[in-house]
Amino acid sequence: MNDLDDMPLMLPQAPRxxxxxxxxxxxxxxxxRLSSENFESRPGETDEGEGRLAQVPPTLTTPAKNxxxxxxxLLDAEMQxxxxxxxxxxxxxxxxxxxxxxxxxxxxxxMGGILGLFLFNQVSTAIIAIQALSGPMWYAAWGVFGLxxxxxxxxxxxxxVLYLKLxxxxxxxxxxxxxxxxxxxxxxxxxxxxxxxxxQLTNYLLEYPASTDRDRKRLxxxxxxxxxxxxxxxxxxxxxxxxxxxxxxxxxxxxxxTFQQKxxxxxxxxxxxxxxxxxFATAVSPNALADTGxxxxxxxxxxADLCTIYNLRAGRLGxxxxxxxxxxxxxxxxxxxxxxxxxxxxxxxxxxxxxPASEVFLGxxxxxxxxxxxxxxxxxxxxxxxxxxxxxxxxxxxxV
Length: 400
Hints:
Elements: H1 3-6, H2 29-32, E1 47-48, E2 52-53, H3 73-86, H4 97-131, H5 136-165, E3 172-173, H6 174-183, H7 187-207, H8 213-221, H9 227-240, H10 248-284, H11 288-310, H12 316-351, H13 360-394, E4 397-398
Parallel strand pairs: 3-4
Antiparallel strand pairs: 1-2
């Protein structure tokens, strides 16, 4: 007989559900809790409940709704650093904009007050002198006075209206992009800032007004017409073609060296135009009031023309610096006229000993012309420096 027949029959067994482990009884916490007699609290600590110390510091405050977690502190620093590197703001004595704004505001108000007092004095003197005239001279004097007042008010009104229409310039620094790539480790932040700068300049190109006849006539009045305007529009079309540029860095360089350079050339010619007119007008003006009024007119008219060329207005700090320079130049022009007599007397005293008695009159003429020429040269330099600074703060991309 086979041995297998003697073995018991083994049927398949269903898997049994494992029995849960026997729970271990937990110790009675209430019985094992230490009483307050077993320890002493440290100074300044209080109990919570029956023999328990305070678990939360009493100085802990609930975070506010807009509070950022501590993990974002480094990111905030990177974002602020990127914004400071890309933004280009005019500096005043090397001070940051936090102190620059109040300082420039005070200087602007001070120069405006000094100019106002000077104008009030000169206008009062001019009105008294005009009232002393009679006949045709009275009408001619009032006509010149009214024309000068109209020119000043017209230039100021034109600049204000233009400022309200134009978009504020957010000047970019290409060197800031390069510096940002070296300083930060966040590649997405670099790409985001580069894309933001590209979008800003692209919108500027699209908004530049040169499509209609009205826009072209307005640009022609500020010297941007003919071949110059054609070159500007051609470079704009090339910049709008994205396939022409291998990367964004070359596009930024091309924007500054082609499109913006054309605008800089037109602005430079306009600055020379107004500087020459200011030099000639102040050289032949009869008194300090005429010098001050014409300097105000030429300054505001030049700034309006530069805003038209760049199709932008300066920022808040740049505007305050421009107004401060305009007020100073106008006040200086009036003071230079007051000093013309002193300079004429000094030149006459220098020339008369070297001339015969019959040529003393030529010495007087030479002294007067020399003083007028000096006054015109000084005003030329002041207006030219004002125009160069205005072009500097109006450029879409900074040169530094």
